[in-house]
Amino acid sequence: MTAHRIPLSELEEAVPFEQRHIGPDHEACAKMLAHVGYGSLDELTAAAVPAVIKSAEALDLPGARSEAEVIAELRSLADRNEVLGSMIGLGYYGTFTPPVIMRNVMENPSWYTAYTPYQPEISQGRLEALLNFQTMVAELTGLPTSGASLLDEGTAAAEAMALSRRLGKNKKGLFLIDADTLPQTIAVIRTRAEPTGVEVVVADLSEGIPAEIAEREINGVLIQYPGASGAVRDIKPVIDGAHELGALVTVAADLLALTLLKSPGELGADIAVGTTQRFGVPMGFGGPHAGYMAVQDKMARSLPGRLVGVSVDADGNKAYRLALQTREQHIRREKATSNICTAQVLLAVMAGMYAVYHGPEGLKGIARRTHRYATVLAAGLAHGGVEVVHGSYFDTLTVRVEGRAAEAVAAARDNGVNLRLVDADHVSIACDETTTRAQVRAVWAAFGVEGVIEALDAATDESLPDTLLRTDDYLTHPVFHQHRSETAMLRYLRRLADRDYALDRGMIPLGSCTMKLNATTEMEPVTWPEFGQLHPFAPAEQAGGYLTLIHELEDRLAEVTGYDKVSLQPNAGSQGELAGLLAVRGYHRANGDEQRTVCLIPSSAHGTNAASAVMAGMKVVVVKTAGDGEIDVEDLRAKIEQYRGELAVLMITYPSTHGVFEEHVADICAQVHEAGGQVYVDGANLNALVGLAKPGHFGGDVSHLNLHKTFCIPHGGGGPGVGPVAVREHLAPYLPNHPLQPEAGPETGVGPISAAPWGSAGILPISWAYVRLMGGEGLKRATQVAVLSANYIAKRLEPHYPVLYTGPGGLVAHECIIDLRPLTKATGVSVDDIAKRLIDYGFHAPTMSFPVAGTLMIEPTESEDLAELDRFCEAMIAIRAEIEKVGSGEWPADDNPLRGAPHTAGALAGEWEHAYSREEAVFPAGMSTADKYWPPVRRIDQAYGDRNLVCSCPPLDAYED
Predict the structure, then answer these.
(1) Could you tell me which residues carry N6-(pyridoxal phosphate)lysine (predicted)?
(2) What is the mean pLDDT of the chain?
(3) Among 34, 366, 426, 818, whose Cα sits 20 to 30 Å from the Cα of 341?
(4) Each residue of 412-440: pLDDT tens digit?
């Protein structure tokens, strides 16, 4: 009997990636569509999306490719990058990521798919890891309070400038920067200072503050330690002199150097900033890396960014949480001094674990080795007649070779090593953890000298001054001493991961946050050496594959959004907002319209909108929100007329922050344009538009995108993020640029927004791969399924909870808001109670009380399959029945499973005196006992943690007590 013949062409067809990414299959979509009342995805989106904004044409993108094909294409791009030994320095260094950290943190979805720890009861693992990070930074800098990470060193220094202005005595004084500061840091500070009217002065402070500057009011001073040139000098006289003038002092310090050198705190600094990149985080062509800031105790409540603190749970057990959340900048809106509302959690965890694994002795050993290589290198150069400019240095040398600098750099490159060309006469050479003897010999050869490493090593003394050597202990807490073996470290990482809830456990239905699949194929290339080990200031010809990938991603994002030009430099959504508003500002100023400074923002907008507008030198005017959740058009018209001559920009989110496609968005944009203003469309909700509508076509002039939302870069527990800015042609000349990489932006640009030319370039392969895997049709279908999933949940929950805002036909966009306020009024059950009770059911809560207090905003995304959507709906329906028992009096208002949630395994031990059973507490609605997620702590006392602020590991003597 002849078998059925299947053509080879059919057998060779791979399962389309789209089917792996999108959760509901064809049959599931049909069931969901039937429940919502539509016959097809096209029919649903035709009803939901206003005709006035719909794109008439399909996305002009390359067709979808298989996972194997995309990996091969990325391998081809990676092979075009040339990874030489990097001795460029300038804040970016080669480092060895311990494999146990690489595999079990960076490559582990338990860590990279987690969300910001706003539900601390199910974030205890990463919160402990961040507390380790804060302790590491605080103790190495000698300052008592450190934040949970900032975006990079340059923006951290800019935040320090803003903090100095806010807290300093001379609030209108200038900000003084030592000339030996990293050039990209100076440039970022200038970008941030200009719109807010802060005068920045750069001067040589090696001999103290010059008299002509000391005569003026100085608000703050920034000193690099060691200097960008490598010089190690006693900065205490400058710090003391600045304090005498009433200025606050920030020290941008290298943490590895601080294992050997006196800390900024000991030298009298008020603030310390920097990067933790060289603590085991790959360079990644510039990022992502965890910046840091540490401050004196009196500044803790003004610290920008996030701060992890210690509190207690309902049983009095120690528990971690984000401290002082009410001082977070996006909550302060237009009163904010910073727009930071995120962090670099994944990278901070890696850096903190690097310190945990090596401990103080190991870190000091790495620093000594690095310094010793620099010392031997310098001795060989000096022996060969090359002038080493500074007598004291840690890891970086500046050498003088009159007229021969470019020749020496080229010769070193031919020998496989990149050096930094300072100018025609000077070369900078940086050693690091990865420096080898072969590289030292290659550098010597490039300068035409020879040396015997062993002989020079034996004959050469250290170059660090005795008066600056560190004598105090640091990293004394047991956590930095207990995990030396890989077995111990592996188990510690697993133990912390088990205390968390991430996307690898179940759905995280957060509205406005888009927690979707971060596919393994997309993630895999990030750790390839050709992408991970490239220095951001390496010669462009060595980064051919990277630059091709970057430009292709820029072009494809421009096509998706309908804009003309995209910059990938902003390394967070907040930074993309700022970049977009600075582009608008630059455009108006170029046209002679310097009076156009008013930014109209709906009252429902995310707080970073207002904060970014203030940082861009604009005046925020709030536009009312109508009862249906849309912009109050009459109030908007009135505000446009009132500020017609001063109107700079309207910032809107589309679909609206309330999860609705506003019908009259094109009319709104036209009214603003007619008045001479620009329209900023916040890209937070782009997951409802891709393939269906383009902001650049329905009236937007500029948008920032969230690659960590729509384009699959993982949230990492609260970072990394990428927030590219997309603009129409007339705004393109005012995009970010960079002083050290001319290809990174227009010559007429506003300056750098981030420290690195292409921001967090190391994770751009993720979004490039996502777009390449999906193709235009796949991206459109993903959007349609996201809209379907949100409407399916809304329809299932509507009989039990009111859906607050809907558009035509009762439809929502890609998220829906359910209103709990009537239930709270009737029963006393709060939005907090429901959020914590969802933990007992095995879920992360939706977004709480944003944009409306007392509500939950739910966004399921296209990645969740029907079984998970139904599991969530059934949990919410069961919780509604529990609320009914409270309302009827069957359960007391102060003793019920909702008020007691979440319930730990430990809570079941001993006497049980509640009005509900143990089974009702931990296995509600017939929940499977085998698949139970057990939270590590009960409900955390937020107020206690703020009253008793503890933001680092307790000292050793407290541990012993």
Answers:
(1) 709
(2) 94
(3) 818
(4) 999 999 999 999 999 999 999 999 999 99
